[in-house]
Amino acid sequence: MVWPSRRVAQAEVVAVAARDGSRAKEYAKQHGIASSYGSYEALLADPDVDAVYVGLPNGLHGQWARAALEAGKHVLCEKPFTANEEEAREVQALARKRGLVCREAFHYREHPLMEHLQSVLCSPGAAGKAAAPGLARRAPVGAPAGTNAGDDQAALGGVLGRLSAIDVAVLIPKWVFGGANIRFQETLAGGAAMDAGCYCLHSIRSLIGGKPQVESATATLAPNSQVVDGSMRGALRWDDPHRSSIRATFTASLQHDGLFPTSTISVRGDKGSLQCSNFIMPVFGNFVRLTTRTEAGDTTTTTTRVYGSGESTYYYQLSRFVRDVQAVQEAAASGDAGALVAASNALAEEGADSIENMRLLDQVYTAAGLAPRLPSALAIMRQLSLAKAQPQETATRLT
Predict the structure, then answer these.
(1) Cα angle: 377, vertex 378, 384; to 5 degrees
(2) 192 occurs within a structural domain
(3) Is residue 344 part of a domain?
């Protein structure tokens, strides 16, 4: 967040907090940040802070997003938004009640590469819809001739024709995090589906639209764990008539055997196919390979690389967040009823996106035979309760 803030004129990092005040102070000194705090509460009490970035472990996202909203701060919260759907609903309800932006930090979605994919596939919302306050999306990037990207459902698939399959994979090599990382801790809402699978589900939803359901999921447990997934595979389906022919599959892994992290999207239709590489970090190299077939059976393959202005996904994300916050602040200051209603509706739409992704993550864990994740406070209480009960059960059996 520090580096992008130096590229976005309207954003400035003014404070940082850590549980260890000396670490926060050293970080502030290293990055030229004016204030540092030894507690999160102290930072939230700072009147110079307008918005907060929550980059804590998964199980703490909801707790501190709520605290920031209660303190009157706008929130950019790391993905996954919360530990589960119930917590996501609670946080977003509070955000709307307070009239504050509370955005899930899917940084990839603001990059021109994602907009290009949506345009090629004529995804719902690809043409000119405002996805949230402050930003009206540009016209489709290179929309295929002969398609109508504004027709949300009838045109879905674009030059690929009627879609039949989409597959998304986010694979992180095991050397990146090792085995003792916080991403494998039950009390921190860890798991491959949470950290990598959330990207899979969100990108599928962003490109296909609708309201998918989890059809199946299979987890491979992390070493020395009975509850945390090191990798997760799953399949989704749609029940609405515009998408019922589409099968979605995903693979998320934090323990992949490969050498480099990969993030790929593959889409098939009755008139062609699309492959996209590195959709999460496109600034480091990407391509979109589009193969189309004519009725005569002739095929054409084109490869496109999308970099936009050359900025990182984090720059685009922070720029979007700043615009959203400014739009909400201006609507509140204007007193204009229409502007306030528009801002409120946009905030509700933004919140619904995060809630929907957490709904699917809960379904994934349930389908895999694992429990949906818990916020850290509840997970710790559960572990303590189980630890207390275990000796009593043993004593009962012995007597």
Answers:
(1) 95
(2) yes
(3) no
Place of tokens 């996954």: 80
Dist. CA 345–CA 207, nearest whole Å: 22
Q: Return the CA Rg of the chain.
A: 22
Q: What is the DSSP secondary structure assignment for residue 296, as one 8-state letter?
A: T
Query: What does the DSSP assignment read for 125-157?
Result: TTTT--SBTTBPPPSPSSPPTT--TTSTTTTTT
Q: How buried is residue 121: exposed, middle or buried, by Cβ count under 10 Å (0-12/13-18/19+)? A: buried
Main-chain dihedrals φ then ψ at residue 151, nearest 5 degrees: -85, 95
341 belongs to a structural domain:
no
Distance between CA atoms of residues 218 and 169, nearest Å: 14
Tens of pLDDT, residue by residue over 65-88, are 999 999 999 999 999 999 999 999
Measured CA to CA, the distance from residue 173 to residue 188 in angstroms comes to 21
235 forms bridges with which residues in the sheet?
A: 216, 249
Instruction: Find out whether 238 and 262 touch, Cβ atoms under 8 Å.
Output: no
- pTM for the model stands at 0.91
Start-to-end Cα distance in the chain: 59
The two counts, helices (H) then strands (E), for the chain are 12, 13
Task: Tell me whether residue 12 is in a domain.
Answer: no
Three-class SS state of 27: helix
- Reported as a single tens digit per residue, the pLDDT across 5-24 is 999 999 999 999 999 999 99
CATH of the domain at 152: 3.30.360.10
Distances (CA, A) of 12 to 45, 51, 70, 115, 378: 17, 10, 22, 27, 34
Q: Helices 198-208 and 337-367 sit at what angle, rounded to 10 degrees?
A: 120
Question: Which amino acid would we find at residue 397?
Answer: R
Q: Which domain holds residue 302?
A: 111-313+358-376
Q: Which residue reads 């926060």 in tokens? A: 24
pLDDT for 241 beyond 50:
yes
